[in-house]
Amino acid sequence: MEVAKLIKGVFLGVLNVVFIWTALFLLGHQAYWVLLLLVLGAALVNFIFISEKGYPYRYLLPASFFMILLVVYPIVYTVYVSVTNYGTGNILSKEQAVTQLQERRILDAEAGNYTYTAYRDGAGELWFLFTSPQGELLLGHAGRLEPVQEGDERFSQLAQFTELTRADLVRATNELSALSFAFDETWQLQMRNINYFGVYRPQYEYIRERDELIDLESGTVYRPVLGYFEAPDGTRLTPGFREVIGLNNFRRLFTNPQVTGPFVRVFIWTVQWALLSVGCTFAVGLFLAILLNDPYLRLRKFYRSVLILPYAVPAFISALIWRGLFHTELGIINQVLRATIGSGVPWLQDPVWAKVALVILNLWLGFPYMMLVCLGALQSIDHEMYEAAVVDGASSWQQFYHITLPLLMVSVAPLLIASFSFNFNNFSVIYLLTRGRPPMVGAQTPAGHTDILISYTYRLAFESGRGVDYGLASAVTLVIFLITGAITFINFRFTGALEEVRKNV
User: Fold this and answer.
1) What is the per-residue pLDDT for 111?
2) SS3 content of the chain, % helix, strand, coil (to 5)
3) How many Å is the Cα radius of gyration of the chain?
4) What is the per-residue pLDDT for 16?
5) Same CATH topology for 105-202 and 256-504?
6) Could you give the strand order of the β-sheet that contains 228-230, starting from the edge strand earlier in sequence?
7) Which of 78, 131, 133, 392 has the smallest number of CB atoms closer than 10 Å to its CB?
8) What is the pLDDT of residue 499?
9) 76: Cβ contacts below 8 Å, ≥ 6 apart
10) Mean pLDDT of each 10-residue bin along the chain, 505 residues long
11) Distances in Å between the alpha carbon of 441 and those of 351, 438, 445, 447, 477?
């Protein structure tokens, strides 16, 4: 018992040390909301392990932790991103964007050009002797400028260093361009070209009290508007910054014609794709299952083994093989078509034929699963029902329609609904065969004719030619989540109804 308490104490001590270290890290990065959650979590953990009342809950702690980390947090963070402008041009925080804008400098042409001689000391560090337009000598080193005169000890020190030739300066251009020497907190001496240095001053000044950026050259005032500092004439400064924009992403999704149009077309095709995939695979799988369930069929085990092979091959390999088969010029399918009917089919270039190719590929990948499911369901049906139907004079079609299909659907219908949900988000097949192509002409977002919602979301987030748009992609993700959630709810209700039917059969 004492050993157990010691182990518990050591474990809790180490855990609290980790909590404290993480809390200090979060405090330094001003992540106050995360810090609050950490403190609450640490208090809960200590309560569970110290208090006797919390003893039963310690076994739920690991599962709860991983559920929050892997399920709850991604959902909450996706909701948060969906109400922000997070994306290309709006990656930085507001403070980071202001800092970058304040670091921008413009050349002060009136200050003139500073000639220079560069030296390198024994340690490889650069020293500069600048001559101002007024003839003043300045010693530059390590970002600092100091006035110097001939005869000074520092001036004489330069004679001990290696003077850089013009060829040396050319080779060190990148190194020289990165250097700056401060006159004061704002004005700096920077390389203008290989011959001269120039005086550069800040272009913008941030007035924190009024939350404004002022262009010191033109006097234009920029104020924050939806993640950008914007002038009265609509001119925006980049980079922008992350900002909560409310439901603007959802408004874009459902009200902007250039966004809504592609989204609606993608949504319609997604539903069609899921229905066609489920319907075709079920029809073929059921047909083959009925054939294989016939006791008079010879070599049933052989046929079953052969027909299950597409299910055994990894889907991504099959998709790549079919991509080669559907190749317009080199694919074996078009070669056969040219040899028989004289012309091929633009499988992956035409929107309609690309969709047909996808359905064929998914039929190849999905029918073995449906065949196995239907085989199991068919073998569970009592044969006495068929014998009674034969006695009553029922035809084969009547037996199938009134006996086989209703009893089959009791077992298979929930799996069909689950298959619909799976194909609704079947990213791999779409991406590997067509990558959503061919593209929709005139779409503001990166949408293709064969994109489904999940691939459309991926392209919004990572493959947009106009830059990534995590906010809009997160909004689409939430729409997908709601749709699949509704399908799951219907699945539960539908499954329960079928169970009631089964009881009455």
Assistant:
1) 86
2) 60, 10, 30
3) 35
4) 82
5) no
6) 204-207, 212-215, 221-225, 228-230, 236-237
7) 392
8) 52
9) none
10) 72 82 81 80 81 77 82 90 91 91 88 92 91 91 88 82 92 91 85 92 91 92 93 92 91 86 91 94 93 85 87 88 91 91 89 94 93 89 85 86 87 86 90 89 82 88 74 90 81 58 46
11) 12, 9, 10, 9, 23
Q: How far is CA 196 from CA 118, 170, 175, 476, in A?
A: 11, 13, 15, 53
* Residue 57 DSSP symbol: G
State whether residue 464 is helix, strand or coil: coil
Check: CATH 2.40.430.10 for 105-202?
yes
Q: Taking a C-beta distance cutoff of 8 angstroms, is the pair 464, 437 a contact?
A: no
Non-local (6+) Cβ contacts of 271 within 8 A are: 424
Two structure tokens written together for 295: 């006791």
Specify the residue for token string 């340690």. Answer: 123
Distance CA 424, CA 421 (A): 5
d(CA 483, CA 464): 24
Q: Six-digit token pair at 363?
A: 């039929």
Quote the pLDDT of residue 370.
93
Each domain of the chain, given as residue ranges in start order, spans 2-59, 105-202, 256-504
What integer pLDDT is reported at residue 504 of this predicted model? 45
What's CA 444's distance to the chain center, in Å?
Answer: 19
Question: Cα 434 from chain centroid?
Answer: 19
Please tell me the predicted confidence (pLDDT) of residue 35.
Answer: 80
Separation CA 502–CA 4 (nearest Å): 52
Strands (E), 62-178: 105-107, 113-120, 126-131, 137-141, 144-147, 162-163
**Helix boundaries (H) for 221-314:** 248-255, 257-292, 300-307, 309-312
* Token digits of residue 477: 């993700």
User: 256, 247 in Cβ contact below 8 A?
Assistant: no
- pLDDT value, residue 495: 59
Residue 166: which residues within 8 A CB-CB, separation 6 or more?
194
Over pLDDT 70: what percentage of the chain?
A: 96
Name the CATH architecture for the domain at 256-504. Answer: Orthogonal Bundle (1.10)
